[in-house]
Amino acid sequence: MADRQDEPDDRSPEDEFREMLSELLSGAGGIDPSSLAGAAGLPNDPASLAALFGQLQQAMNRADDGIDWSVALKQGEERAATGQRQIADDERARLDQAFQVASLWLDEAVEFGALPGTPELLTRRAWVTATMPIWSQLAEPVALSISDALTRVMSEQAPEEMRQMIEGASRMMRGIGGALFAMQLGQVVGQLATEVVSGGDIGIPLLDDGRAAILPQNAAAFGDDLDIPTDQIELYLAVRELAHARLFRHARWLRLHLITAITAFARGIDIDTERLEELAEGFDPSNTEALRNAVVNGALIRAKSEGQQAALARLETMLALVEGWVDAATADATSRLPKSDAIAESIRRRRASGGPAESAFATLVGLELRPRRLREATAMWRAVTDAVGIEARDALWAHPDLLPTAEDLDDPARLIARLTGTDAAETEADDEFDQALEQLLRGETPAAPSEDGEDPPA
Per-residue pLDDT tens for 397-431? Predict the structure, then answer.
């Protein structure tokens, strides 16, 4: 009877790779399960290891090239649930009342009408569930780029006899790389759920249009650091959240515009294949910390190109315009609150510094979601409000072409002159002066206008 090794091997490269990877993951091939869990950002415990292997097995067996973002959702929900408490009845009653008062105050400060639905109170886990679709949409271009680059580099670095096998299993490799990235994203969003106080806290529209929400547990933690009555803090946060939600509901184009700009930026990110090659050459299956650090610290993303820098500048201007308008509208609506200025300043400092989870997302995707020119944007919206009023100010959100530009943030007077029509009068006067000067230089005497203000006939 012939030995099994003499029998023809009808297995596909993908089958061969699956068997090899299963052997590696079982421990026989030298991959330490705890190290692999560390690479995915998971704690080293039996439950986490079992979940990791289950997710990787699903990734190997996927029939399409996409990323299974349910992995991120599961990781995020589990991370957010740690230390979560339920919403107390007295807390719910206070915040429901705060939203009612906030809506009345905001009616006086903005042109946009009230929301169609009732604002919500969310637990940390519920916030992850509600926002993960947007997070995964923002992260997917980078996740696919890293997975594709990793597959390409591994194929190039592999010995000749293994190259065909790896190339034939590229879809599987992409799925595994995507699963590891999704796990990392889930950990980041789960941690972020312990920090945000509302649906619009990050500045981008994470919730559906017309939907507003506050996380009572995090709002209470935010207030712990301030010597301000709880009811004032909750009312201020309610006004701010409603202002953000009303803006995105009224300017229907704004949500798609922002998300498209962010995903376009992410698609333009270039992966550092040289760094990946170094990792592949020195990869130690028993120690995956170097691979994890490269992903988490953003080391695999090249420095931004000129085009990326320009796109980032446009995106930062848009984020600043949104946040600045929300700040200005909230300030007007909460003028009755004795400590509103102190709460506003605390929020600005918090947004400017960002938290650990926000920084982690920035390294994963290569994008910081902080409006760097927030103070300039707030001052500009304040000046516009004083010059032309609330209705004309809010009318600028009707179309992206009407919005102020980065130059308007530098010099709000130009924007105000344009809105009030004074720039047209100045231009007309300048044209008349230039025409008169040209006549004098030709030796002609400029004709004086008639008494009715019209030029006399030639």
Answer: 999 999 999 999 999 999 999 999 875 445 555 55
Do the beta carbons of residue 452 and residue 420 sit within 8 Å? no
Distance separating alpha carbons of residues 340 and 319, to the nearest angstrom:
22
| Token pair for 37 | 């869990």
Structure tokens at 108: 């006086």
Which residues face 271 on adjacent strands? 301
Please check the confidence at residue 292 and state whether its pLDDT lies above 70.
Answer: no
> Which among 108-112, 139-143, 154-158, 206-210 has the top mean pLDDT?
108-112
> DSSP E strands: which ranges in 143-221?
213-214
Residue 123, classed as helix, strand or coil, is coil
Transcribe 330-395 into DSSP letters.
HHHHTTTSTTHHHHHHHHHHHHHH--HHHHHHHHHHS-----TTHHHHHHHHHHHHHHHHHHHHHH
Coil/strand/helix, residue 198: strand
**358 Cβ partners below 8 Å, 6+ apart?**
192, 195, 202, 368, 369, 370
Checking phi first, is residue 83 left (phi over 0); if not, alpha (psi -120 to 50) or beta? Answer: left
Q: Which one, of 305, 293, 315, 308, lies nearest residue 363 by Cα?
A: 293
Q: Is 179 exposed, middle or buried (0-12, 13-18, 19+ CB in 10 A)?
A: buried
